[in-house]
Amino acid sequence: MPRTSERGGPQTRARISEVATRLFLERGFDAVSVAEVAREAGVSSVTVFNHFPRKEDLLLDRTDDAVEFLRSAVRDHAQDVDVLASLRDASLRLVDERHALSGLKEGSIPFFRTVGSSPALIARAREIASDLQRILTEELDRDPTFDGDGMLFAALFIAGYSAVMVQTAGRLVAGEPSDAVIDDHRARLELLFDALRNGVLPR
Asked: Is the pTM of this model over 0.85?
């Protein structure tokens, strides 16, 4: 296969991600090597690693989006809207949009199955959650309008959000009706935000 330009930047990255995702979903994460992804994408293995430092990141490639989601919710909220309300509104918008970060994107079941069958991907997902917790803590500590315990708030938010997503993924994989799963997903997010409001923030 002729090699594509390895200077393509975002286009090259998108092509690599597309190819990797297809191969992983077809054959399983552990059965596909980085060299195979590179060959199918028409680039070198070095180029793959330039865009994705770890093999797991070829599939779990929404970290930057998640970081931007958190930072935007903290940094861009209106003066009369606190951080918790901003995070709640942003999270529910993801549900309405069926965004990948909500776990409700159409066609996500093969992705969930692939992640759930790979210990390496599960471990990497936990590392990403830990990184997001740290980033959210740092953002809260910088926000002069937030006077709660940033570390505790971030830990509970990330853990709670992750738990809702995992349960949603399991129910979708099990074949439950999507409308019911979505309604329950939204209701559990509301419970999470109620718990954060009443149990973590100062009264």
From this structure: yes
